[in-house]
Amino acid sequence: MSQLVYELSFKGVASDTLASAFEGCHVTTHHGITTVRSLVADQAALHGLINRVHALGLELLEVHFLAEPTDDDVAWLTEP
Prior knowledge:
Blueprint: E1 3-11, H1 16-19, E2 26-30, E3 33-39, H2 43-55, E4 60-68
Antiparallel strand pairs: 1-3, 1-4, 2-3
């Protein structure tokens, strides 16, 4: 099965303390926008990540799905 990777971006520069709220995620900042990239197991985990952004009072700007298919994942090799 493919790994599901999502990127969430929010306004502002994440301090070390704020970035630590996203443990296990890759956090980067560029031009005043912070991006959090994370492996997500399912939709519930994605909603948990989004809820964390809101709980911290951050302004969510975007959510991007990034697919990283494996060689043996036929779901990505066939058309719907």
